[in-house]
Specification:
about 525 residues; mainly alpha; Growth Hormone, Chain: A; 2 domains; two-stranded parallel sheet; MFS general substrate transporter; membrane; MFS_dom; transmembrane helix; transmembrane
């Protein structure tokens, strides 16, 4: 019998995703488990999953797994939808509260800022109490604070409730990818994660259209952008409570050990997860101290996290740019002006083809390396996506003015969406493959940086456009993206050499510096 690990080494994953399954990697170091066994007597029985154990989520049928994957994806979709659905309501919020157009961007920015702090609670909660009991409170909290935003009487209460909405909304965004890893083996996980990535990005891209439709309905208005999220969050919480079993292996094995002790009267049955507690010091180390250290001292983390954060931020900047281009400059109606977001979503779906198409090539590289991850095999799609991203930004810059036929700029928006998704997913995969045991900290470095970028930079969009114009502003973004184009090519050539100098990245023999 082999014990099923709580979450497999993400370096074995073949996925292309917005956030990889790395939540539990750092706590799964073999030496920690061994130290626990030494405290037990020699007659203790470590509870494991048997072969084809019906309690093991890996053995569940495909129909059940698809149903669970659907539930998990809906949770993440609602949380990501909530981030941007308020964006079309900015003029109404300005009029109602009396704030200026730049300040009116804060409800979106503060929600994204909540993603900095939320994972520090919901990640450890899922590792101690399981996926189910981290997702349900998070979604319920998102619903409560969404209703709070909908009933707010002033801008201060809107801002506060939006921040806490993001704090709770970070729960499903942070944990659903790990939960999918609990039910799918690496061979099939890549497909599930890639589709999940499209669902998560689809939230903020569909949000402007949904939000505009609600606002244009004279019987609803801007408050219903938040009432809708509240209703969906409560419904999701109820669905999860009623239909989703626990799927986190350590929690399931702990329950199995407790049941066996009760059924047999033999106190020798045990599992290490019974001793796991919330450790504040560990939370600070895992989510802040080590990620910041890696961000500042690891060249790969610095480059990749900055690149991924930039493309992620451009996605949220378009929430301000597109209404200016299509509604204010071209005179389109509020609902019609959201059409380019649907073009971006089409680009995102196209990126799915690129990312999935790279999987056979990646797996051949892994097989040739004796089963070890090959981070550099992730870089070809990144280079393709980066090129599309730059082309999309420059084409949009040249075709955004109202005298140019609109279809060209909408096609450019599709290139931006496809390029963003390809670059972002492969950046995260490269970090996971490179740092393995410390992958959670490497990805947390990216999460911290991208959330700060995406919360702050959209605030400068209108002042930037007022000063540089649409063409100048988009050309500036295109120029920055062009400066990042060499990143995948440099790493293709020198990535292995850089990894050999790292204190955190295992290379060749898989040795990891325990003092890092």
């Amino acid at each position: 019998m082999q014990e099923k690990p709580s979450s497999e080494d993400p370096s074995d994953s073949d996925n292309g995703i917005l956030q990889p399954n790395v939540q539990d990697v750092e706590k799964a170091a073999p030496e920690k488990v061994a130290s626990r066994t030494e405290t037990r007597n020699t007659d203790a029985y470590l509870v494991q999953f048997d072969a084809n154990d019906p309690e093991d989520p890996y053995t569940w049928g495909p129909g059940k797994k698809v149903w669970l994957a659907f539930q998990l994806s809906v949770l993440a979709f609602v949380a990501s939808l909530a981030s941007a659905i308020t964006a079309p309501a900015q003029p109404e919020i300005e009029q109602y509260t009396g704030v200026g157009p730049t300040v009116a961007v804060l409800p979106v920015s503060l929600y994204v800022l909540g993603f900095v702090f939320g994972p520090c609670v919901w990640g450890p909660a899922s590792e101690v109490w399981g996926r189910r009991w981290s997702l349900i409170p998070a979604m319920f909290g998102l619903g409560l604070f969404s209703i709070g935003t909908a009933t707010s009487k002033n801008f201060a209460s809107i801002a506060v409730t939006r921040f806490f909405s993001g704090f709770f909304g970070a729960g499903p965004v942070a944990n659903v990818s790990a939960a999918l890893g609990d039910i799918y083996r690496p061979k099939f996980r890549g497909i599930a994660m890639s589709f999940y990535g499209v669902v998560v990005v689809g939230g903020p891209l569909l949000a402007p259209t949904i939000g505009s439709a609600l606002i244009q309905n004279k019987h609803l208005g801007w408050r219903w952008t938040r009432y809708l999220i509240g209703i969906l969050s409560f419904a999701d919480s109820a669905l999860t409570f009623a239909c989703m079993p626990e799927i986190y292996a350590p929690v399931l094995l702990k329950r199995k050990a407790q049941r066996l002790r009760k059924e047999t009267g033999n106190e020798s049955y045990w599992h290490p997860h019974e001793s796991v507690k919330v450790d504040i010091k560990s939370i600070i180390t895992k989510h802040f101290a080590r990620p910041l250290k890696m961000l500042l001292t690891e060249p790969i983390v610095t480059c990749i996290a900055t690149y991924a954060s930039f493309v992620f931020t451009v996605l949220y900047m378009t929430l301000q740019i597109f209404p200016i281009v299509y509604e204010e400059c071209r005179g389109w109606g509020p609902l019609v002006s959201t059409t380019p977001f649907l073009a971006m979503l089409t680009g995102v779906c196209s990126a799915l083809i690129v990312n999935l198409g790279n999987q056979p090539r990646y797996m051949r590289a892994v097989d040739a390396a004796g089963g070890k991850p090959v981070p550099e095999a992730r870089l070809l799609p990144m280079s393709i996506g980066g090129t599309c991203f730059v082309i999309g930004l420059f084409v949009f810059a040249g075709t955004a003015p109202p005298h140019v036929p609109w279809p060209v700029s909408v096609v450019a928006a599709g290139l931006i969406g496809g390029g963003f998704t390809t670059v972002f997913q492969q950046c995260l995969n490269y970090l996971v493959d490179t740092y393995r045991l410390y992958a959670a900290s490497a990805v947390s470095s990216n999460t911290l940086l991208r959330s700060v970028f995406a919360a702050g930079l959209p605030l400068v969009v209108r002042p930037m456009i007022n000063r540089l114009g649409i063409t100048g502003s988009m050309s500036l973004l295109g120029g920055i993206a062009a400066l990042a184009l060499p990143v995948p090519f440099v790493l293709m050539r020198y990535g292995l050499t850089i990894r050999k100098m790292s204190k955190f990245a295992p290379v060749a023999m898989g040795q990891i510096n325990p003092s890092a």
